TrEMBL record:
<dbReference type="InterPro" id="IPR033895">
    <property type="entry name" value="GPT"/>
</dbReference>
<feature type="region of interest" description="Disordered">
    <location>
        <begin position="1"/>
        <end position="32"/>
    </location>
</feature>
<dbReference type="GO" id="GO:0006488">
    <property type="term" value="P:dolichol-linked oligosaccharide biosynthetic process"/>
</dbReference>
<dbReference type="GO" id="GO:0003975">
    <property type="term" value="F:UDP-N-acetylglucosamine-dolichyl-phosphate N-acetylglucosaminephosphotransferase activity"/>
</dbReference>
<keyword id="KW-0256">Endoplasmic reticulum</keyword>
<feature type="transmembrane region" description="Helical">
    <location>
        <begin position="282"/>
        <end position="303"/>
    </location>
</feature>
<keyword id="KW-0479">Metal-binding</keyword>
<feature type="transmembrane region" description="Helical">
    <location>
        <begin position="397"/>
        <end position="419"/>
    </location>
</feature>
<feature type="transmembrane region" description="Helical">
    <location>
        <begin position="212"/>
        <end position="233"/>
    </location>
</feature>
<comment type="similarity">
    <text>Belongs to the glycosyltransferase 4 family.</text>
</comment>
<feature type="transmembrane region" description="Helical">
    <location>
        <begin position="74"/>
        <end position="96"/>
    </location>
</feature>
<feature type="transmembrane region" description="Helical">
    <location>
        <begin position="183"/>
        <end position="205"/>
    </location>
</feature>
<comment type="pathway">
    <text>Protein modification; protein glycosylation.</text>
</comment>
<dbReference type="GO" id="GO:0046872">
    <property type="term" value="F:metal ion binding"/>
</dbReference>
<feature type="transmembrane region" description="Helical">
    <location>
        <begin position="315"/>
        <end position="339"/>
    </location>
</feature>
<keyword id="KW-0472">Membrane</keyword>
<dbReference type="GO" id="GO:0005789">
    <property type="term" value="C:endoplasmic reticulum membrane"/>
</dbReference>
Length: 424
């Protein structure tokens, strides 16, 4: 959910008498000029790629003695993912021009009062990332999975759920669906995943609780699928509400994706169970193109944002991460990586369920004189950080929140592996 306000006519529900020209400043009789976007911040994308992909590459190709075929498949997926990165860089400016022509733009609320606050920022550019991701994943499937592979059905189900979520997210960006309806969208998108899921539906009882429960394994049956559904709903909406400043939606997704990649390769390298290794290998093939295409979007969405990602991206990102967590059989660990989103959701409950008044945009106050943001009483991490650590610029606030996201992932790694053998 971008920090934006819609054009007055769209917000009021009015329909303009005729479509405005692409460039309102063009003189009568002159051809309308194509809007020109600023170049993307490739430095941020490159720095993030090195920071997050270097640990994964070291673990996969140096630290762990992985099978040569697996390393070859990872390299193949990485090459296709890199291609997806460059394709997104090329397509976003093209799609942005089309979105501006169709009046799919907004104004950055956190820059209101400045000249940059009056710039038309194209919205819903997460659509480009979603389409390129799907094409990349489908092409890789043709080169890797055989027709009789046991993972092929779940792979296609995963892509179907992601595709559903991209469509429904774009519908939300176009129609501006109410919040009560937003909660139902992930439920619809998760249906292909739930119908195709053929994995186990049991959970291992933590060792400290085994004497009290009397079981080591608990079969949940349909309740496990209910858990999967709730996880998909939570992941999609939690990223959507932990938003509102340039770079935050994509940034948090990049951090979580990198943590998922590292977790996958660590589990492959430390486990001797073939099924476990295959599940985490499956997860790598879905996360790697997702991470690289998101890095390309981050170059455009980093402060000052050239494009808004829209609900299309936040829903797509949440569903993609939920899919890899569920089919990779590490949903508990995925929730640990979502710790900031869990905290943000818990702090937001009073407003989300209207126990207290909830404004449309729970954003901080921007002072155009100083260029700093001040926290409001709204219950989300964006405002809580400002109240705790004082006012700061939008860019500095985003960096603080992403550092917090990364620290939470590091803590989750420590907790996950410190408790291994004692907890389960």
């Amino acid at each position: 959910m971008s920090a934006r306000r819609r054009p007055a006519a769209a917000a009021a529900g009015a329909t303009p008498s005729q479509p405005p020209p692409a460039d309102a400043a063009a003189a009568p009789g002159e051809p309308a000029k194509e809007p020109v976007l600023r170049p993307p911040n490739l430095g941020v994308a490159a720095a993030a790629a090195v920071l997050f992909l270097a640990p994964f590459s070291y673990l996969a190709f140096v630290h762990y003695p992985l099978d040569a075929d697996l390393r070859g498949s990872i390299l193949k997926c990485g090459a296709m993912s890199l291609g997806g990165f460059f394709i997104v860089l090329k397509l976003i400016p093209v799609a942005a021009r089309y979105h501006l022509r169709r009046r799919m733009f907004g104004y950055d609320i956190n820059k209101k009062g400045l000249p940059t606050g009056e710039i038309k920022v194209p919205e819903a550019l997460g659509l480009v990332v979603g389409i390129v991701y799907l094409v990349t994943a489908i092409i890789f499937q043709q080169f890797h999975y055989a027709e009789d592979s046991i993972w092929l059905v779940e792979y296609n189900a995963a892509l179907a759920s992601v595709c559903f979520m991209i469509l429904l997210g774009f519908v939300d960006d176009v129609l501006d669906i109410p919040w009560r309806v937003k909660l139902a969208l992930p439920t619809i998108a998760a249906l292909p995943l739930l119908m195709a899921y053929a994995g186990g539906t049991s959970i291992i009882i933590p060792k400290p609780l085994t004497p009290y429960v009397g079981l080591t394994v608990l079969e949940l049956g349909l309740f496990y699928k209910l858990f999967m559904l709730l996880l998909a709903v939570f992941c999609t909406n939690s990223i959507n509400i932990h938003a509102g400043i340039n770079g935050l939606e994509v940034g948090q997704t990049v951090v979580i994706s990198a943590a998922v990649l590292i977790h996958n390769v660590m589990r492959i390298g430390s486990s001797t169970d073939i099924e476990t290794q295959q599940a985490h290998e499956f997860s790598i093939y879905l996360v790697l193109p997702f991470l690289t295409t998101s890095l390309a979007l981050l170059a455009f969405n980093w402060y000052p944002s050239i494009v808004f990602v829209g609900d299309t991206y936040t829903y797509f990102a949440g569903m993609a991460l939920a899919v890899v967590g569920i089919l990779g059989h590490f949903s508990e660990t995925l929730l640990l990586f979502f710790l900031p989103q869990v905290l943000n959701f818990l702090c937001s409950v009073p407003q989300l369920f209207h126990f207290v008044p909830c404004p449309r945009h729970r954003l901080p106050r921007f002072d155009p004189q100083t260029g700093l943001l001040t926290g409001t009483k709204d219950g989300n991490l964006v405002n809580i950080f400002l109240r705790l650590f004082g006012k700061c610029s939008e860019k500095a606030l985003c960096i603080r929140l992403l550092i917090f996201q990364a620290l939470c992932c590091v803590f989750c790694f420590w907790l996950r592996y410190m408790l291994t053998g004692w907890y389960k």
